[in-house]
């Protein structure tokens, strides 16, 4: 691939870095990320918040990315992740504002975006949403350099809470920045505004 | 099914084992490769995109497709659920239980495939997930006149795009009504279905038939022309309309929200179901035929 140079961001992302990003920026990630693709996992993290406990992997002031992975034990007693890819974040809309505020997250992400309530929570605490390529498993998986921890092994693999070290993960697009700008909301509103003209054009094309 | 007379026993029928092996292979192959027509469409989109970020996302998509081929890895971690369309030639002869063959083929594949699959088969009553479940794999059976082969097509279906399919039943809708409904489905999916997508639209028949022909329409090669002129024109203008929304690749903005819109119809009563479904950009799809002499022809 002949891609331009992308800004590299150290994970867990600092609040300063989060606030420095703007919707539409494309970046690469280095460092440590925490991921899960499971709704039951989000419920467990929510329960931790409600009961004042820490989840088994600390996400405070860190990232919680909607990425699913296949993790397994290795023969030498370690852990490995065979592949990783994003899941649709909007599934977690009702839960994310609470998690973003309670844990002071600096980065969330996945694919498809999050809603206005999440965007408000992100602006409040200084957090960005990172859009990963769906169907990007070969690229995302190749950026994994180590598995730091896997928790809640009673869940199916992609639901587990996993901490990974990555090198050059991405490029990912900043879909929602910490200043209240959401590509997803902007594009949806823009499409809505365009719809009367789009339907009128369909009428004209049909008549011609 | 044709029952064999004594004189034809020497001719080799299509076997249960052949169907088992091929159906499992088609699923496995589909996970590791973006079809050629789809890669070509992505390249064309990259050349015509005016949005810089979208050009980059399309480039990264093509890079991911290439890497999957080079490393023989899955393009997406969501291997979906196994979905097959089996077309049986009306003159085809086979032996054994070809329905059980597909279930067995998937079951055996799950035990040996590398890397292993995540558990996506979900019991909708409990949301428990595993590798097996009622009516799994999901198979649509069709019969084709004037053929003696069995064709198996595989299109694993995952949540990312599967979630956004919808159907609504109208009475005596105009084409404008139908197209407005397609656009509502596009707006509902918005940025969430891993665009640029392939959109299937099924019009008419009964409720189940509309959904079936919408799904079948997504199997058609990108760039192929609809033989029905009314629908060929509808596909062209709907594709322009969808791409005028601006959601773009991965829904982060651009001119390329769909690579194709494919429409089919069946006659029905004046109540007209319209079904709309989406395939994400990787458009997983494989197809092969087992001929009467037992030879296997890989078609895509």
TrEMBL record, chain A:
<dbReference type="InterPro" id="IPR004647">
    <property type="entry name" value="Fe-S_hydro-lyase_TtdB-typ_cat"/>
</dbReference>
<dbReference type="InterPro" id="IPR036660">
    <property type="entry name" value="Fe-S_hydroAse_TtdB_cat_sf"/>
</dbReference>
<comment type="similarity">
    <text>Belongs to the class-I fumarase family.</text>
</comment>
<protein>
    <submittedName>
        <fullName>Fumarate hydratase</fullName>
    </submittedName>
</protein>
<feature type="domain" description="Fe-S hydro-lyase tartrate dehydratase beta-type catalytic">
    <location>
        <begin position="10"/>
        <end position="186"/>
    </location>
</feature>
<keyword id="KW-0456">Lyase</keyword>
<dbReference type="Pfam" id="PF05683">
    <property type="entry name" value="Fumerase_C"/>
</dbReference>
